[in-house]
Amino acid sequence: MRFTLNGRTVSLDVVGTRRLLDALREDLHLTGTKEGCGEGECGACSVLIDGEVVDSCLIAVGQVEGREVTTVEGLADGGRLTALQQAFIEHGAAQCGICTPGMLLAAHVLVQQSRQLTADDVREGLAGNLCRCTGYTKIIDAVLSCTK
Amino acid sequence: MHEVTFLCPKDLQDAVRLYRTTPGCRPLAGGTDLMVMLHARTLRPQPRAVLDIWSLAELKGVRRHSGMLEIGAAESYTGIIRSREAHRHVPALVAAARTIGAAQIQNRGTLGGNLANASPAGDTLPILLAYDAVVVTDRRSIPIDQFFTGYRKTALQPDELITAVRFPQGRDVVFRKVGTRAAQAISKVMMAVSRKPARIAIGSVAEVPLRARGAEAALERGDVDGAIAAVADDIRPIDDVRSTADYRRTVTQNVLRELLSVG
Ligand SMILES: Cc1cc2nc3c(=O)[nH]c(=O)nc-3n(C[C@H](O)[C@H](O)[C@H](O)COP(=O)(O)OP(=O)(O)OC[C@H]3O[C@@H](n4cnc5c(N)ncnc54)[C@H](O)[C@@H]3O)c2cc1C
Ligand code: FES
Ligand code: FES
Which residue(s) pair with B77 in the sheet? Predict the structure, then answer.
């Protein structure tokens, strides 16, 4: 099977029922995508499929045939971080970092979809991404700083 | 342990054929219910193959069909939320879709999955009951009030695929969802109400999403107090949560009172 991963075509010879999460981490060695709960509750495994945020622990890799998958590794352009990534650093929005890749992808969609966001919009948009460290305030501030 | 085969049909006709001819085959739509069980191998019987119906064009979209609004079985909640037709004709469904999980779940979860999963707590199910929705499959149409036959059991044949859900137009439905998923065991009640015709549909208060027929009969006569009294006898709170059965009756009556006072 083939799909586009962070702008490049990849082909894989694995059973289609394998979780996209495992294909990314174990077969393609992109370990930026994290596994938290493995049940769709925490969002640590968030990736984008055709620009929409999904939990890669709930996707069968066969379902991304012909589609475009973006992981956290695909956000930065070479060495240049996105404004959102930069804002996460500046606001101290990451502590242990487990939630950060998924958080960045979910936030990326939010910032792309609409320029004007309230703190409540951000909270709602990131409701599928749990963080046990930061208490969310710094994450929300970081996202809001990219929308003004 | 052998691996589960992944079947990728090229169109609906192909999917229907594969489903009928492959033993131990299970449809996979958004995977938000199925994938965890598939991965943990907790499905009984363990499927031998999964049939990916997520990408089938015939199962996507929101459209009008012979005077009804039709939503494809594999259309996502996000697709429903974004649809102008859905906003116009089934606003209560749109509002309920917004309460299902977060973005990641709304981007994948489908009506077909919610229906086939047939959880008594499935949030779209009371809404579908209040609208008198029709479940369309590869071979027939099933009125929603005949769809749920027992705890997580449906009227579907083992090889029958849901293709769409149809809604009559011009009905006013209001709903209220009490309690979160995490708090589900204690307080969750999901209720959807239509005044005309009288429909009172409730989730998480019995082994199936049910219509409160006694309360509906009272409401049809315009007897609001009678409906609130009757609903306590219509529901069947599950026995293993004995201590909360009375509590659930009270919550259910309060929710109905509230919904009938706004309408
Ligand atoms: C974090 C999280 C939060 C959730 N929150 C909610 C919530 O608030 N409310 C709620 O109601 N649910 C919730 N769910 C459950 C789930 O998202 C919904 O039930 C969803 O509608 C399932 O759709 P799906 O397409 O993902 O189903 P899948 O997982 O693909 O399939 C579910 C079942 O339906 C069968 N199936 C799917 N499509 C068809 C079809 N067309 N014909 C025949 N059989 C079919 C499958 O074989 C499987 O048995 C949540 C799940 C998660 C992980
Ligand atoms: S690991 Fe996928 S949502 Fe938690
Ligand atoms: S930074 Fe540790 S979970 Fe969010």
Answer: none
Give the CATH number of domain B5-52.
3.30.43.10
Distance CA B197, CA B230 (A): 17
Which residues in chain A touch residue B182, judged by CB atoms under 8 angstroms apart?
none
Residues 6+ apart with CB under 8 A from A99: A34, A36, A42, A43, A44, A129, A130, A131, A132, A133
Whether B28 contacts chain A with CB within 8 A: yes
Residue B64 dihedral angles phi and psi, to the nearest 5°: -90, 140
Interchain CB distance below 8 Å, B31 and A58: yes
Say if CB B187 and CB B178 are below 8 A apart.
yes
What is the token pair recorded at B72? 């494809």
Distance between CA atoms of residues B135 and B73, nearest Å: 9
CA distance B161 to B117: 13
Kindly state the average pLDDT of the residues B170-180.
89
Tokens 């907790």 found at: B42
**Which domains does chain A show, CATH number per domain?**
2-71 (3.10.20.30), 83-145 (1.10.150.120)
**Above 0.85 for ipTM, yes or no?**
yes
pLDDT digits (tens, 9 = 90+) for B69-101: 999 999 999 999 999 999 999 999 999 999 999
Q: Of B55, B78, B103, which is closest to A128 when you measure between CB atoms?
A: B103
This prediction has a pTM of 0.96
Hey, are the CB atoms on A60 and B35 less than 8 Å from each other? yes
Q: DSSP H helical segments within B22-170, as ranges? A: 34-40, 77-82, 84-89, 91-97, 103-106, 111-117, 124-130
